[in-house]
Write a structure and sequence with these properties.
single chain
Length: 444
């Protein structure tokens, strides 16, 4: 394939994936926007709860992410009979994991208080998590099915279902948070109920579509039947991905805890800046998923040239997006932060000032973040997950978190210092992952 053909194929698969990731994250972003207008304490609590939930969710998603390269490789190498086995066992493992972590969310206040969070904020966070925790199971299943469809290059339906879920979440939030449309005013609990409904309905619709559009795979027929070989294969590839996700997401969750030690206004500003950063990061995640599928397809065909050319094209596209994000963050930070806050809130000015500083730091790590997540996607495509897991653990924790504590508390730079530590961790991870891919993984 020529570079132009690679670019066309990348966009054909990547745009629906990017769109679905943006919409999926926008559902949580809507919660933050509406709660920011409702109550600052609710915003701080959901920032904490959301970080805690996402940490557990993204770790469990490692098994879903393992499905994409395995299905892509099986399909491209003529082993299509393995597609059902891989996907079904991906769902099995995800369900087992989800049930295991439910108690951690249900009794989260004890954990959050032990980590130094304010008791009132921790209790509010637990109240939110006691509702949203039940949506973890359908959310994990949706992740498996999204990766299955992406590997088969059928990502368009995911985009449309996610769009419908986004619209539903906005309407239900509007009703239940503020007490509109004849509904009771439930505040933060209303946002939690909306999220639970959205996750459950998304899974049901996606499952019905797959059962009708791809009957040859029969994913849900005799779902209870185990497959030890496929279970083991998905587990072996998935657990290092899960721990890699834990290392990166844990870094950001720990940063929320560190900022929570500083104060409620700082935590609210951190939450807003993190949502904006994470929203733009969803574009890179879409590229990363595309990288996994296309690298997995090349890997299944043992086509080294296609792997290298496809990687170069994708990385250039991701680099261009990073440039655009930096321009936006540095040009209109006050406008972006202010969207989340009620103009009449007395803490608005303080939160905007802190948030603007954090977005300036976020601009620093755009290129590093793009490099590390897309290199990870490429490495997963060639089923290289264990060494990247170790590289991530070193980059994000001893270096990244150590730097966050050093800058934030020893050098007394506050929330900005905590974010500078994130820059260190992401930059090191990006360099290590890129080196790993270009020196080792392309030799297939």
């Amino acid at each position: 394939m020529t570079y132009r053909a690679h670019a066309r194929a990348t966009l054909m698969l990547g745009l629906p994936l990017i769109g679905s990731h943006l919409l999926q994250f926008s559902i949580h972003l809507t919660d933050m926007l509406m709660l920011g207008w409702y109550d600052i304490e609710a915003l701080a609590a959901v920032t904490l709860a959301g970080s805690f939930w996402f940490l557990l969710f993204i770790m469990g998603s490692g098994f879903a992410f393992a499905v994409a390269p395995m299905v892509a490789s099986a399909q491209s190498s003529g082993r299509s009979h393995e597609v059902r086995r891989i996907t079904r066992m991906g769902m099995w493992i995800s369900l087992i994991y989800g049930v295991t972590v439910l108690p951690l969310m249900y009794f989260s206040a004890t954990i959050l208080i032990a980590l130094g969070q304010e008791t009132e904020i921790a209790q509010l966070a637990q109240e939110y998590l006691r509702i949203t925790c039940w949506g973890t199971l359908p959310a994990l299943l949706v992740m498996v099915l999204k990766n299955y469809l992406a590997a088969l290059e059928r990502a368009n339906i995911v985009l449309w279902i996610t769009l419908a879920a986004f619209v539903m979440n906005v309407v239900v939030n509007y009703a239940l948070i503020f007490g509109n449309l004849g509904a009771p005013e439930l505040g933060m609990r209303g946002a939690a109920i909306a999220s639970l409904l959205m996750q459950t309905i998304s899974f049901v619709i996606l499952a019905i579509f797959i059962a009708r559009a791809l009957p040859q795979h029969a994913l849900f027929q005799r779902f209870w039947r185990s497959d030890r070989e496929a279970f083991g294969a998905v587990f072996r590839l998935g657990w290092p991905i899960g721990l890699t996700n834990l290392s990166e997401s844990g870094l950001f969750t720990a940063s929320a805890i560190l900022v929570g030690w500083i104060g409620t206004a700082e935590l609210a500003a951190h939450g807003i800046a993190l949502q904006l950063t994470a929203l733009t990061f969803m574009i890179q995640v879409g590229f990363s998923n595309t990288a996994t599928v296309r690298a997995g397809t090349a890997f299944g065909r043992n086509d080294a040239q296609a792997l290298k050319r496809g990687a170069l094209v994708l990385l250039v596209m991701a680099f261009v997006v990073s440039i655009l994000v930096v321009i936006i963050f540095l040009s209109i930070p006050e406008l972006l932060i202010g969207l989340f806050l009620n103009p009449a809130d007395p803490a608005r000015g303080q939160i905007i000032a802190i948030g603007v500083s954090l977005l300036s730091v976020a601009a620093l790590f755009q290129f590093a973040d793009s490099a590390q997540v897309n290199a990870l996607g490429l490495l997963r495509g060639v089923q290289d997950t264990k060494v990247p897991m170790l590289l991530a653990a070193v980059a994000y924790w001893p270096l990244g978190m150590g730097s966050s504590y050093l800058f934030g508390f020893v050098f007394e730079m506050g929330a900005v210092g905590v974010w500078l530590g994130l820059v260190v961790g992401l930059a090191v991870a990006g360099a290590l992952m890129m080196h790993r891919f270009w020196t080792k993984a392309v030799r297939i």
